[in-house]
Design goal:
Blueprint: E1 7-13, H1 21-32, E2 36-42, H2 48-58, E3 62-65, E4 79-80, H3 82-87, E5 92-96, E6 99-103, H4 106-118, E7 126-130, H5 134-145, E8 150-154, H6 158-168, E9 174-176, H7 182-187, E10 191-194, E11 219-222, H8 231-238, E12 242-244, H9 247-262, H10 268-282
Parallel strand pairs: 1-2, 1-3, 4-6, 7-8, 7-10, 8-9, 10-11, 11-12
Antiparallel strand pairs: 3-5, 5-6
Helix pairs in contact: 1-10, 4-5, 4-9, 9-10
The structure holds NADP nicotinamide-adenine-dinucleotide phosphate (NAP).
Function: Involved in the biosynthesis of the chorismate, which leads to the biosynthesis of aromatic amino acids. Catalyzes the reversible NADPH linked reduction of 3-dehydroshikimate (DHSA) to yield shikimate (SA).
Family: Belongs to the shikimate dehydrogenase family.
Pfam families: SDH_C (PF18317), Shikimate_DH (PF01488), Shikimate_dh_N (PF08501)
Length: about 280
């Protein structure tokens, strides 16, 4: 129940009507009884600065930030956490003692879910990643900081891959996979990650990597959670590879934001359950 003591958090994005975050967070808040509530705010790009002023004026405890504001909001904040600075995007803001601090929980949310769900040891991983967009940056920097052995990047636009490889390469050995070298790169990799939207609803017949390139020694991870099991994951499962779906990243990026706002451990089990139920209804 919302009372005069309720602490408000929410989501700034455009559009936001499709977002699972309000339901996931409000379920978590009601489960824990912490006196928080979460609302979605559809903020047009030209209104972002006023919306950020609104966080201060209305005393919001924090917000999540999604497309198209993850980069644009950065200069409007008082402080940016070092990992978010490296990634170059913010998905969570915390209001602390009147200062707005920007974080990026996407990468850590991904890594936490990957390790919890598959049990892999990050330090042993040779990673091939398809894609070099915003989500790829979050995942690549976090994996690099967590000490994976090597990162290889396959991307449609070589230039975007080159920029990411150059930046991540300052932390861990990183190279671009040139056209025609994809199969060889995956052959001696231990972890394959799809960070593109290839295979996402409604294009469920698409896959970023031919099935013949997969092998049973791989952990295959897809950031997509809509559908829950993409064609890539189905084909990987069929040949005996370990598979990991994007729902864990979504739940854990939210759980880490919850923990930054409340200082309490998030109830990830119920958060995952409510998102799963919702996805089953809509897919
Ligand atoms: P983005 O910044 O737009 O990047 C998209 C990436 O996909 C780029 O590397 C792009 O290549 C590549 N790509 C897109 N369509 C392609 C195609 N038809 N052929 C080849 N490459 C293609 O998007 P993003 O924010 O990183 O999101 C990427 C995916 O991650 C989405 O499916 C999103 O739903 C998912 N995601 C999941 C979570 C989660 O919580 N599980 C969180 C964030 C994102 P170019 O560089 O050549 O354009």
């Amino acid at each position: 129940m919302i009372t005069s003591k309720t602490q408000l958090v929410g989501l700034f994005g455009h559009p936001v009507s499709h977002s699972q975050s309000p339901m996931m967070h409000n379920t978590a808040f009601s489960e824990t009884g912490l006196g928080f509530a979460y609302a979605a705010f559809d903020v047009e790009p030209e209104n972002l600065e006023d919306a950020v002023a609104g966080i201060r004026a209305l005393g919001l405890k924090g917000i999540n930030v999604t497309i198209p504001h993850k980069v644009a909001i950065m200069p409007m904040l008082d402080e940016i956490d070092p990992l978010a600075k490296r990634i170059g995007a913010v998905n969570t803001v915390v209001s602390r003692d009147g200062r707005l601090i920007g974080y990026n929980t996407d990468g850590m949310g991904y890594v936490r879910s990957l390790v919890e769900e598959t049990g892999i040891v990050l330090e042993k991983q040779v990673v091939t990643m398809v894609g070099a967009g915003g989500a790829a940056r979050a995942v690549a920097f976090t994996l690099a900081e967590q000490g994976v052995k090597e990162i290889r990047i396959i991307n449609r636009s070589r230039e975007r891959a080159a920029v990411l490889a150059e930046h991540v390469g300052t932390i861990v050995p990183t190279k671009i996979v040139e056209q025609g070298e994809g199969e060889a790169a995956i052959a001696d990799s231990s972890l394959l990650i799809n960070t593109t939207s290839i295979g996402m609803l409604p294009n469920v017949q698409e896959t970023p990597v031919p099935a013949e390139w997969l092998h049973s020694g791989l952990t295959v991870s897809d950031l997509i959670y809509n559908p829950l099991e993409t064609r890539l994951l189905k084909e990987a499962r069929a040949i005996g590879a370990t598979v990991h779906s994007g729902i864990g990243m979504f739940v854990n990026q939210g759980a880490l934001a919850f923990e930054l706002w409340t200082g309490e451990r998030a109830p990830t089990g119920v958060m995952r359950e409510v998102v799963l139920q919702q996805l089953k209804k809509t897919t």
